[in-house]
Amino acid sequence: MRLTTLLKLLAVTLSAAISLASPSLAQSGLLKKKTKLDPITLSAGKPLAEKPYELEAGKYYSLAIKADGSQEIALAGAEFFRNMWINEVVINDIEIRPLGIDSLEFDAAGEATISFIPIRPGSFILQIPKTTGETQRAIFNVKG
To answer: Where are the domains of the chain?
Structure first.
């Protein structure tokens, strides 16, 4: 790993640790500068995303995931979730601050919003489980 990448990773990790330790510090800095990403729509037979998401490690993002209720659909991505610091998942105005996520499943129409910070460069995928089609996944390219 290059030294600059290692230093960026260390800075992101420290930022996350500080924000976890002190909510007032988290609210006054990084977590106020959120970039809203184009939403992912879960609908029977429709693509999840039009194009790959281009992200930057250490920046704060918000991603809405909307299900139209046309089918019971899950969205999984263990590698995606393990390489992001998840600040919260909001479902029906209920804020959840998880230690880890593997997937989200929608049994009916609804929306969940995930706010997160990528902590490691790479390419990560959220996809409908047990599918192989390119339209059934969203790709997140994270630059260091």
So the answer is: 3-143
Residue closest to 142 by CA, chosen among 85, 98, 64: 85
What whole-number percentage of the chain has pLDDT above 90? 69
Q: The whole model's pTM is what? A: 0.76
What distance in Å separates the CA atoms of residue 104 and residue 113, rounded to the nearest whole number?
Answer: 11
Q: Based on the number of CB atoms within 10 Å of its own CB, is 100 exposed (0-12), middle (13-18) or buried (19 or more)? A: exposed
C-alpha span between 21 and 124 (Å, rounded):
28
> Under CATH, which number does the domain 3-143 receive?
2.60.40.420
Of 118, 44, 112, 35, residue with least CA distance to 103: 112
